[in-house]
Amino acid sequence: MTETTTARSGQPCWIELYASVPEQSAEFYRELFGWNIEEMDSDCPLSHVITQGEQMVGTIEPLADGPVPADGWLVCLWTPDLTALVARVVPAGGEVVVEPIQVDESTRYAVVRDPDGGLVGVLEDPNFVPAVPGAGTPVWFDALTRDLERGARFYREVFEWDTHPMSDAPYVTHGVGEDSVCGIGDLGYFGAPGAEPGWQVYFGVADFEEAAQHVARLGGEVVVEPRDTPWGRMATVKDPQGAVFLLIQVGSAPQG
């Protein structure tokens, strides 16, 4: 994922981990990525806030309070106009799962489902500034779908993606080359065994082999063994409660 300073419609801007036992998940990710995870007061709409250095990464929320059916990461995409975006969802073949809600004075949030069943959050935040990708932070995001043409069309029509197909794989990026910020790929080609359509997060690590081994030591599991790819060395793993994510050597991320 390229470092950018200007937000664009449909760009990943926030992540939420929905966990059966948030405190246990918090301990796992603290140990793995060195995150600072702070439990918030009861009057705050967020449960546990994740920061890495000075950057806010996302939150950990109770599974019972969320839209996801099992422990997992929810990727949120940025929009300058949530009302207009939500109006485009159903005509494009999707579903509004969580109607727009006011988070604070300037921020609004919703959750939608794409035509293949993948859940994605939507955030209207006028103060959003893209984070600097690096070790311990998300460096890439993509959706996996059974129908790439339909999926790419949905994100183009609803989230105003600037879609660019890759020439050598069934994959479409939002933005081109070094300017791309996320993508969508064919589930059968890119998905781990048993994977369902939906979004996935790639976290950068400075020492890939150590991080992959540390997942197992902390009670997680390597789902797809480490492999070298055109975008860097990566592995698909899951935390002790079953939330799946990817590790990728820092400085490398899928690009179109």
From TrEMBL:
Pfam family, any one: Glyoxalase
Domain VOC: 11-125, 137-250
InterPro entries to which the protein is assigned, alphabetical: Anthracycline_SecMetBiosynth, Glyas_Bleomycin-R_OHBP_Dase, Glyas_Fos-R_dOase_dom, VOC_core
Protein name per Swiss-Prot or TrEMBL: VOC family protein
Source organism of this protein record: Arachnia propionica
